[in-house]
Write a structure and sequence with these properties.
Shape: globular
Largest sheet: 9 strands, mixed
Low-confidence stretches: none
Helix content: 25-40%
CATH class of one domain: Alpha Beta
Structural class: alpha/beta
Number of strands: 19
Number of helices: 13
Bound molecules: (4S)-2,6-dioxohexahydropyrimidine-4-carboxylic acid
Radius of gyration: 21 Å
CATH topology of one domain: TIM Barrel
CATH superfamily of one domain: Metal-dependent hydrolases
CATH architecture of one domain: Alpha-Beta Barrel
Distance between the termini: 26 Å
C-alpha cells in the first residue's frame, strides 16, 4: 500500500492501563509507535485523550440484540450503538431470537448485519439445541464452519437441562474446538420462580429461585466437561455457593470459565420491595452476601469475566405486573461504571484488572485473536478510552438501546467511556457514536 493511501490516527495524552501519559500513533488500524511528543503525518486524524485511561476495547460474551424477531426491544443496529458507547469492540449475541439462531442461515444474517453497521464486531452465539427445545442437538458443526464462524454455543434463557444432551453437546464442542456456555438453572427446581429464594421473597409472597438450582447444574456440568475434555463457560453466576464449585473444578484442571454480570455485582433482592419489574432478571438479584462473594471471586480470578447479559425489553413487556414481566435488564452502557463503582473504587481491581475481566479473558474464551490484545506496537488499535473521574446520571430514555429498562435509572455512577476505537477507526468520540 502506498504511503498516500495509509490512514493515520494520533492519540495524545492517553494513560495506558492508568499509567503515565503517552501518545499512540496508529497506522492502518495498527499501533506503530508509542511514546511522548510523537509527530503525526500531516493528514493524520488526532484524538486528544486529555489524560484518560486507555484500555483494550471491551469484549462482551453475553448480550441479547433481539434481531431477528424482537425488533420492538432492540436491533443489531441500536445494540451496536449501545455497545460502542459502552466501550465495547466485540459482542456475542445470544441465540434466543425468533427464529432461533440454530442454523447457518440465521447466524450468518446476524454476523452480516453486524458487519454492515460496523461499529462493533458482532459474533453470533449458536443454539445448542434445535429451537432451544433442549431435546435435539442443533447443527453445531455447520454453524462453526459457516461464514459466521460460531465459536460459542448456548441455549441461554434456558438451561440445557438434560444431562445426556449436555454430555453430547460437550463432546461435540470438544471435537469442534468450540465452547458451550451454559445458563445454569435446573428448571425442575425453579418452576414458577419469581425471585431469589430467601427472606425478601417470603415477605413479598414471591415464589423462590433457590441458589442450589444454579450450584447443582454447575457441579454436574463441570464433571461432564472434565470427561469430555471440553471447554465449558458458565453464564451469569449469581450465588456465592457456585463459586466454591468453580474453585474446586478449576483446581482439578477442568476447562471451565465463568462470568458475572454488573447487576449481580451491585444490586440485591432488597430492591424488590416496590415490585418494580425493572428489577426482575434471571438469575434473580440475590443477597448482599452474594454480591460480596461475586466481587471477591472476580478479583481473585475464580470468576473470569464480566459479561453484561444486556437484555432489552420493550415497555409492553416490563410495564406490567411482576409475575407477567419478562426478566432482563440493559447493561452495555453502564457496565464500565458499575465495575468502577464495585471493583475499582474499593481497590479490588486496578486498570490492568479491568482490562483482564472486560477484554483479555473474554477475548480468549470467545476465541478472538485480534481483541483483548496488549497496548503495544504491532498490535491492533482497538481501544476503550475511559475518564475515571467523570460522574454521570443514568437515564434510560437517553441510552442508545431501543428499550429503556435500566435498573440504574437516576443513579449517579462513576467513570465514563469517552471514546471507542475499532482497528484504528473511531466509533465513539466525546461520548457520541461516529456514524
Ligand atoms: O434475565 C434474563 N433475560 N435472563 C436470561 O437468561 C435471558 C434474558 C433475556 O433474553 O431476556
Amino acid at each position: 500500500m502506498s504511503r498516500d493511501s495509509m490512514s493515520s490516527l494520533l492519540i495524545t495524552n492517553a494513560r495506558p492501563y492508568g499509567e503515565d501519559p503517552v501518545d499512540v500513533l496508529v497506522t492502518d488500524g495498527v499501533v506503530t509507535s508509542i511514546g511522548t511528543g510523537l509527530d503525526a503525518p500531516s493528514d493524520a486524524d488526532t484524538l486528544d485523550a486529555g489524560g484518560a485511561v486507555l484500555l483494550p476495547g471491551f469484549v462482551d460474551l453475553h448480550v441479547h440484540l433481539r434481531e431477528p424477531g424482537g425488533e420492538e426491544s432492540e436491533t443489531i443496529e441500536t445494540g451496536s450503538h449501545a455497545a460502542a458507547l459502552g466501550g465495547f469492540t466485540a459482542v456475542f449475541a445470544m441465540p434466543n431470537t425468533d427464529p432461533v439462531a440454530d442454523s447457518a442461515v440465521v447466524v450468518e444474517h446476524v454476523r452480516r448485519r453486524g458487519e454492515e453497521i460496523g461499529l462493533v464486531d458482532v459474533h453470533p452465539v449458536g443454539a445448542v439445541t434445535v429451537g432451544l427445545g433442549g431435546e435435539r442437538l442443533a447443527e453445531m458443526g455447520t454453524m462453526a464452519a459457516s461464514r459466521a464462524q460460531v465459536r460459542l454455543f448456548s441455549d441461554d434463557g434456558r438451561c440445557v437441562n438434560d444431562p445426556l444432551i449436555m454430555r453430547r453437546a460437550l463432546e461435540y464442542a470438544s471435537s469442534l474446538g468450540v465452547v458451550i456456555a451454559q445458563h445454569a438453572e435446573d428448571h425442575r427446581l425453579t418452576g414458577g420462580a419469581q425471585a431469589h429464594e430467601g427472606a425478601v421473597a417470603s415477605r413479598l409472597g414471591l415464589s423462590g429461585w433457590p441458589a442450589s438450582a444454579e450450584e447443582t447444574i454447575v457441579a454436574r456440568d463441570c464433571a461432564l466437561a472434565r470427561d469430555a475434555k471440553a471447554a465449558l463457560h458458565v453464564c451469569h453466576i449469581s450465588s456465592a455457593r457456585t463459586i466454591d464449585v468453580l474453585r474446586t473444578a478449576k483446581a482439578a484442571g477442568v476447562r471451565v470459565s465463568a462470568e458475572v454480570t454488573p447487576h449481580h455485582l451491585l444490586l440485591t433482592d432488597g430492591r424488590l420491595t416496590g415490585y418494580d419489574p425493572v428489577n426482575k432478571v434471571n438469575p434473580p438479584l440475590r443477597t448482599a452476601e452474594d454480591t460480596r462473594a461475586m466481587r471477591e471471586a472476580l478479583a481473585e480470578g475464580v470468576i473470569d469475566v464480566v459479561a453484561t447479559d444486556h437484555a432489552p425489553h420493550a415497555a409492553q413487556y416490563k410495564d406490567t405486573e411482576w409475575s407477567a414481566a419478562k426478566p432482563g435488564m440493559l447493561g452495555l452502557q453502564t457496565a464500565l461504571s458499575v465495575l468502577v463503582e464495585t471493583m475499582v473504587e474499593p481497590g479490588l481491581l486496578d486498570w490492568h484488572g479491568v482490562a483482564r475481566v472486560l477484554s483479555e479473558r473474554p477475548a480468549e474464551i470467545g476465541g478472538l485473536p485480534d481483541q483483548g490484545r496488549p497496548i503495544a506496537e504491532g498490535e491492533p488499535a482497538t481501544f476503550a478510552l475511559v475518564d475515571p473521574d467523570a460522574q454521570w446520571t443514568v437515564r434510560g430514555a437517553a441510552l442508545a438501546s431501543r428499550a429503556a429498562n435500566t435498573p440504574y435509572e437516576g443513579m449517579r455512577l462513576p467513570g465514563s467511556v469517552v471514546a471507542t476505537i475499532l482497528r484504528g477507526r473511531i466509533t465513539v468520540r466525546d461520548g457520541k457514536v461516529q456514524a
